[in-house]
Amino acid sequence: MSIRSERLRELLPCVSHFCVDFACTALLTASCLGASAVSVILCAVLYNGCAFALQLPIGMLADRFCLRHVLSAVGCLTVALGSLLTVPLLLCIAVGLGNACFHVGAGREALLLGGSRAARVGRFVAPGAFGIFLGPLSAAIFWLTRCAAPLLLLACALLFCLQKQEQTSSAPPLSLKPPQYAALVICMFLTVLLRSYMGTVTRYAELSLPTFAAAMTVCVFLGKCLGGSLADRFGAFRFQLPAQLIGTALFALSVVFPPLALPAVLLFNTTMAVTVHTLFRSAPSHAGAMFGLTTLALYLGVLPRLLGAPNPLFTPWGLALIGCISAMTLLLGLRLAQKGAGAHDG
């Protein structure tokens, strides 16, 4: 296989991820225009439940039946077909299921092909940030949301079907005793949940400014894209220790000086590739389930906001508290992973 071909194989899931997230958020926003507050909440809870919580059972099925490119293609196709629906609740279910199938299929593939390195899964997830940002802004453009985006998704589905199955890279499992394994999974799960919840706590008035919102999206993208590569280069624990300490301090100070939220968001998003890849290394034969476990944590983290729960933690001390707890769970899990990898190497 040529280098160019390898790059094209990696580019397809990244481009498809942008298209899927763009189409989903654009269609959902368009379907909720003019709807009542109760309908909007119901659609948000239903869509996110299908798109994120269902990735765990879908991932388990993908592991059981070794579903790879076909699941990514089904996801793209389902979202494209969902654009034909006009009933908001049905549309939420269709695009939510399509989103879940695509993410599990392509995310599982990125983990399996990345093997012992986290960079590939980070590069796969990162483009979704731009899709989520641009989708709602384009919701009123009918030809784009109901015609162009679905056609792009159909093209992506076709390309996935035409791809040949690649040989996976080796990823030796971590050597952990059952209590250590359970502790690692809990630590990674809590880290993702708290990171997700942190995103619902922050309420920067500057996000109403297009330039600030765009800059925040770029920081999310860079954090997710670079997190795996930096972990591969310097070691996950060695890199995340200063990153989380600095990120937590910046988040606490950002309540007073909001521009500090930009580097804080970048640093916090570097954990995405690290958490999912660490879970994968703990059980390489269950890549789909491990990917789905992180998205379940994401869903539980945003659920309070979706349900309209009060938010008293947007204070320096509140953000510092969440940041410190999530940093401790992350670093504890990474330390356990270090011991497991050392025991295996020995």
Keywords for this entry:
2 domains; 346 residues; mainly alpha; 0% strand; 15 helices; Growth Hormone, Chain: A
Topology:
Elements: H1 3-32, H2 37-53, H3 55-65, H4 69-82, H5 88-114, H6 119-125, H7 128-137, H8 142-162, H9 178-201, H10 210-234, H11 236-254, H12 261-269, H13 271-282, H14 287-306, H15 316-345
Provide the gyration radius in Å: 19 Å
- Distance between the ends: 34 Å
Mean pLDDT: 93
Question: Tally of extended strands?
Answer: 0
Q: Give the CATH class of the largest domain.
A: Mainly Alpha
Low-confidence stretches: none
Order of secondary-structure elements: HHHHHHHHHHHHHHH
CATH architecture of the largest domain: Up-down Bundle
The biggest sheet amounts to:
none
Instruction: Specify the helix fraction band.
Output: over 70%
Tally of helical segments: 15
- The coarse overall form would be globular
Give a written overview of the molecule.
There is one protein chain. By secondary structure, this protein is an all-alpha fold. It folds into two domains: 9-162, Up-down Bundle (Growth Hormone, Chain: A), CATH 1.20.1250; 178-345, Growth Hormone, Chain: A (Up-down Bundle). It has 15 helices and no strands. Helix 1 (3-32) runs parallel beside helix 7 (128-137) and helix 5 packs antiparallel against helix 6. The chain is globular, with a radius of gyration of 19 Å. 50% of the residues are buried. The model has no long low-confidence stretch (mean pLDDT 93).
